[in-house]
Amino acid sequence: MVKQKIIHLTLSDYQRRACASNQFSGKETAIDQLRFGLFGEIGSALSLVKKSHRDLQTADLVGIGEELGDALWYLTTTISEYGSNLNDVGITSLAKLQKHFGVNRDTHEQNLTFVQFDGLVDFCRSKLKHENMLNQLRQLGINCGRLMEGEENNLTTSQHLDQLSTILADIVIVGAHFEQNFASIAENNLIKIESRWPPDGIAHIPLFDEHRTLLEKFPRNFSMKFIQLSNPSGKPYVIQQMNGVNIGDRLTDNRTQADGYRFHDVFHLAYLVHLGWSPVIRALLKLKRKSDSDIDENEDGARAIIIEEGIATWIFNHAHRRDYFENIQTGRLDYNILKQVADMVEGYEVAACPMWQWEKAILDGFEIFRKLNEIGGGNVHVDINQRTLAFEPFTP
After folding, report:
1. Which of 45, 189, 253, 373 has the fewest other C-beta atoms within 10 Å?
2. Residues with Cβ < 8 Å from 201, sequence gap 6 or more?
3. What does the buried/exposed string (b/e) look like for 181-211 if buried means 16 or more CB atoms within 10 Å of the residue's CB?
């Protein structure tokens, strides 16, 4: 067997991929916005590690690594806006780290990888004293603050390089104090940002029931009719029909003040289109994957249904206070919403879906919801193959 060569992530590749998701690039306020973001992420990391007076749990350590990864992203994009590159900053930073640890290791490779930083830290692990940790945290905050001082044009290129490389070195040392591998910090950050802002041309992940029989597979193209009626007291409710057959129970808003929640099943259709996932719709259409008892119980069962309904309700309550996301463009949905959803579906098949698919599902679902709610019903056309959800006004 031929042993494959392990290809480590280079600083140049990280910069290229990180900058592809930079929404501030080219804007007049880009440098300020990115420096603000860097300052904020460092602040978040320091807020997490203030717990260091007690034992940190695994989740705390992972959280610190994520915050440092976000700080690395902001640092890298700031470097790009200054017209420099992460590799040059990294070379200077590596030299600063060697001076910090009191070692002198030749760096022959000029195309740096993150592993080289980890190698230096591992070599000097015994010099990472716990009693020095708080001072290192203070230095990270101080050095980040210095970057915020004055206008960027007041500093020379060498001064910028010195400031940026110092912060990079600080991030490496702080990460090491909290058992965070620098290469993993960078790689996990790329996974995160590319899940949120995908590279050009990326496709949806394959459908979860792609290889199932027709008895266990979502129909790829169908229409759902949302019919709004009123009870004798004038309270509106909604009935859904597919091919002339009522689907599920009649739905009301379940709320004293009407808010349109009776149309909320459109969100499940949106999840189906963009995620290939909806235990709720699978149950309504009697398409549970009974041929596999584990999938039937764990992916299509009651708990999965409850989680999906919980996600739809939680997002709806959030959107209700924000005009049902009417003016939110793709790529601008609050990241914290997507992060919370990812946490809620952890352990289920849909966890494989990147955040950008969730964002499409959420924004498309609310676009159709607003029309249903405004007009009082309509037809919703689902095309899973094309990943589209379309609305047309209801005609009796």
Report:
1. 253
2. none
3. bbbebbbbbbebbbbbbbeeeeebeebbbee
Rounded distance between C-alpha atoms, residue 87 and residue 90, angstroms: 5
Length of the chain, in residues: 396
Residue whose C-alpha is closest to residue 91's, from 160, 161, 186 = 161
Q: Are 384 and 278 in contact (CB under 8 A)?
A: no
Choice among 28-32, 228-232, 295-299 with the minimum mean pLDDT = 28-32
The answer to the question of residue 208 being in a domain is no
Residue 396 has what pLDDT? 55
pLDDT tens for residues 56-78? 676 678 888 999 999 999 999 99
What is the average pLDDT across 189-194?
94
The residue segments making up the domain with residue 67 are 11-196
Residues 124 and 183 placed together within one structural domain of the fold:
yes
* Domain co-membership, 134 together with 263: no
Q: Do residues 124 and 223 both lie within one domain? A: no
| pTM, entire model | 0.87
Domain membership flag for residue 162: yes
Using pLDDT thresholds of 50, 70 and 90, give the confidence band for residue 156.
Answer: low
User: pLDDT over 70 for what percent of the chain?
Assistant: 92
Same domain, 40 and 103: yes
Q: Do residues 264 and 119 share a domain?
A: no
DSSP letter, residue 346: T
Name the domain count of the chain.
Answer: 2
Closest CA to 299 of 283, 313, 315: 283
Position 392: which residue type? E
Q: Do 363 and 255 reside in the same domain of the chain?
A: yes
Chain center to CA of 184:
17
3-class state of residue 289 by DSSP: coil
